[in-house]
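Predict fold of Acyl-CoA dehydrogenase; 387 aa.
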Amino acid sequence: MTTTIDQLFDVADFVTEEEREWQMRAREFAQTRIRPIIDQAFEDRRLPVELLPEVGEFGAFGMYMEGYGLRGASSVAYGLVAMEFEAVDSGFRTALSVQGSLAMGAIYKFGSEEQKQRWLPPMGRGEAIGFFGLTEPQGGSDPNTMITTARREGDEWVLNGRKRWIGLATIAQVGVIWAKDEEGVVRGFVVPTDTPGFTATAIENKLSMRASLQTEIELNDVRLPADAILPGSKGLSSPFKCLNEARYGIVWGVMGAARSCLEAAVDRSQSREVFGAPIGGKQIIQAKLADMFVEYEKGLLLALHLGRLKDAGNLSYGQISVGKLNNVREAIAIAGTARAILGGDGITSDFPVMRHMANLESVRTYEGTDEVHQLVIGRELTGIAAF
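Predicted 3D structure, encoded as tokens:
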């Protein structure tokens, strides 16, 4: 399954044999199980939920976590899996991220031993689906405006509020809801979705991420036992630590989308003829392909560098922002150039490029917009917060 892109720059030269095995297994799964159905799923606005148990069987959910039946793989291995999934569709990689990095990540980092034992094994197997409820309709990039509340009544917590753009909630069995307690401190709660007062509704009118599942959640006097709280979480730093796990996956994932677009452009440049010759024989097309490839290679090397830092325990928030800002921005530019090379056919489902272009606009927005990451990097450079 070697591609033209791999022949010029093969990440296998820089990863371990185990990491490469993860990548190739993910590529096989993505190309044989997801790719044949993804265009129709995008058209139907449907996440292929029937494949999620197979992802669990494959072992990709929470794969870099230790214990609880999870695989304990490296962060680089996880990044390679995210890249192969997103090479087919950003929406399916998002499901991997919501389940593994966000929902499982919150329980793994901040949960009690009882919560971990109860939820992590079935979530890792894909038998239980989870969500991560932070973003609110009025808040967007500023979760400190959170209005969802958690008040204590005897031996129970009572949650009220709304969340929006929450992945997987309509099919989930459990989720983590972030709410402000009576002292105004953000706390996390494990919320089974069959709890009375919990309602999740799919957001249907999306022009991006159509083969994905985002929802709006309403919490009306949702009563939870006292031990539903994540004991290790306190303040916004807790959900931010989970978000940084997801942002790290994006750094790798979008390079998969970029590779897919670049491959489509290279192939089409050899088969599409104008003025009596393939367009790939024109200097201006070769210059565009070369520039696209250079940015792809740089982005992948950046992702690999950040992965090695993460595995060594040395990856900072600012460095993650560098990766997310650069790689999403360059993936979008690569997709746009590829679409131009494909000509009019580039807007059709004969090629994956327009679908990647639409999806990447969502990836640019979630887990921190370009502007948010610019301000994070600016704060690191100057020591002054400009939010």
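The domain at 130-228 is CATH 2.40.110.10 (Butyryl-CoA Dehydrogenase, subunit A; domain 2).
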